[in-house]
Specification:
The structure holds two protein chains of two kinds.
Chain A: H1 2-8, H2 12-17, H3 21-26, H4 30-39, H5 42-59, H6 95-98, E1 108-113, E2 149-155, E3 158-163, E4 169-173, E5 189-195, E6 198-204, E7 216-225, E8 228-237, E9 240-251, E10 267-269, E11 275-277
Parallel strand pairs in A: 4-5
Antiparallel strand pairs in A: 1-2, 1-9, 2-3, 3-4, 5-6, 6-7, 7-8, 8-9, 10-11
Chain B: H1 3-29, E1 48-58, E2 65-71, E3 77-83, H2 87-92, E4 105-112, E5 119-127, E6 132-133
Parallel strand pairs in B: 3-5
Antiparallel strand pairs in B: 1-2, 1-4, 2-3, 4-5, 5-6
The chains are: A alpha+beta, B alpha+beta.
């Protein structure tokens, strides 16, 4: 595995694998030529040539027949890294420890995302191809936005966030660091710890149905008041980041409702974002 | 590499760098938000008043739909559809799956969908007993504005 991994970084394809998805998207078309020229610099040319030959031999003997191979999936930025900060207080690793944690689990939480209007929809016009449209999956961090609810479940070693939207599950493993090569998923890989009464969550390896997925989302979650939950998020796109704060109100007697988008998707959208409605009477 | 080739390479690197920068800018600006779809498909500047009889109320995801039979004034019937929030949103506004029942006489207000489809965004309902049902917090395209009966039957 180590050998294949090192080869990946020595091929022309590997040059892209080390760059962020935003960069890769941005350099399509005419840029590909430039990237190719850049890759074949005197310092790299030998490695690229040898690497490409070895990878071809390893991958498929019939490469010369014109068979196309998929690009290797890049290792997610942040893989293997530790959760920022320092754990303190009960860590929720046993039922006894959980008893000492703040109460996130009673009732459900209805929230809004800072920067978005209260409904979570007004004015936030998704681009023509966006997550959620035509019932495609929503992903982190959008899945945490209003207007639908979220609920928390505490079990030893794990915090689970069940979202009403898309009935998604975020599993936050209370462990010091990320795995070495996590799969890209819509919720990403979340690990975290408690710093006193604040849950710190680090999420990487996020994929998106349509949009450019963040490379990392850092969250600090705490009770601002008994029935007000505050989530401070830092959303990273490579080295750039955006901070935002969301407040959620507790609804003690309400329940999460079922949400299967596929149940009655009367609205459909073409690639340009034009809507049509199925008016068939059922 | 001669000077001409260097110039070409330099221009391409610059163009590429601009694209990379723009891509990163877009990425940092477009934090995905939870959404099923935009509400720009509805014309928020128009409001139709639909007086008729409920044919069905779809208590479904991703949106509820209220269907109403409206006399077209020429002896015929047009069936119109009003798109609502998801049931999870409606229930927190105090609605249930029985808020509208087939046969109920009601008046609906909608922002019509752009184009010829007889559908729109639900804004408000006035029931036969005078009760008013409105989404708490308003609708994406705002309140009723100068409501008019819908245009005549499609030729």
């Amino acid at each position: 595995m180590v050998r294949v991994g090192s080869l990946r970084h020595e091929t022309a394809v590997g040059v892209q694998s080390r760059r962020s998805r935003a960069e890769v998207i941005a350099t399509r078309g005419a840029c590909e030529d430039t990237v190719r020229v850049w890759a074949i610099s005197p310092l790299r040319s030998a490695g690229v040539l040898v690497g490409a030959l070895m990878l071809s031999a390893l991958a498929y003997a019939g490469d010369s027949s014109g068979v196309k191979f998929a690009k290797p999936v890049p290792v997610a930025p942040g893989a293997g890294t530790a959760v920022p900060g320092k754990a303190s207080g009960p860590q929720g690793d046993s039922w006894t420890s959980i008893a000492g944690l703040p109460d996130f689990t009673t009732g459900i939480w209805l929230g809004t995302m800072a920067g978005a209007p209260p409904s979570g929809l007004v004015g936030t016009e998704p681009p023509p191809a966006s997550d959620g449209r035509n019932c495609t999956p929503n992903s982190m961090p959008g899945i945490m936005g209003g207007p639908l609810g979220i609920e928390f479940l505490f079990t030893p070693g794990r915090v689970t966030i069940a979202t009403e939207a898309d009935r998604a599950i975020r599993r936050i493993y209370l462990q010091p660091k990320h795995s070495d090569d996590p799969d890209y998923t819509f919720m990403g890989e979340s690990v975290g710890h408690w710093e006193g009464a604040t849950l710190v969550v680090d999420t990487i390896a996020i994929k998106s149905a349509h949009e450019t997925a963040p490379t990392r989302v850092l969250e600090r979650i705490h009770l601002k008041a008994p029935d007000t939950l505050q989530i401070d998020q830092t959303v990273f796109f490579g080295t750039k980041s955006v901070d935002r704060t969301s407040l959620y109100q507790r609804r003690r007697s309400e329940r999460i409702m079922e949400y299967y988008c596929e149940e009655n998707p009367r609205d459909t959208f073409d690639a340009a974002g034009n809507a049509t409605v199925d008016t068939t009477q059922k | 590499m001669n000077r001409q080739l260097l110039d070409i390479f330099s221009r391409r690197v610059t163009r590429c760098a601009k694209r990379v920068s723009f891509g990163l800018y877009l990425g940092s600006a477009a934090i995905p938000a939870f959404a099923h779809h935009s509400f720009t498909q509805f014309d928020g500047n128009k409001s139709y008043l639909l007086e008729g009889t409920i044919t069905s109320f779809e208590w479904t995801n991703p949106h509820g739909w209220i269907w109403i039979a409206v006399p077209d004034g020429k002896g015929g019937i047009d069936v119109w559809g009003a798109e609502t929030k998801a049931p999870s949103g409606l229930v927190r506004d105090g609605w249930t799956k029985r808020s509208f029942n087939p046969g109920d006489k009601v008046t609906l207000y909608i922002h019509p969908m752009r184009g010829a489809t007889k559908t729109g965004e639900f804004v408000k309902a006035v029931l036969a007993d005078g009760r008013v049902l409105e989404p708490v917090g308003g609708t994406p395209n705002g309140p009723v504005r100068d409501p008019q009966p819908p245009p005549g039957p499609t030729p």
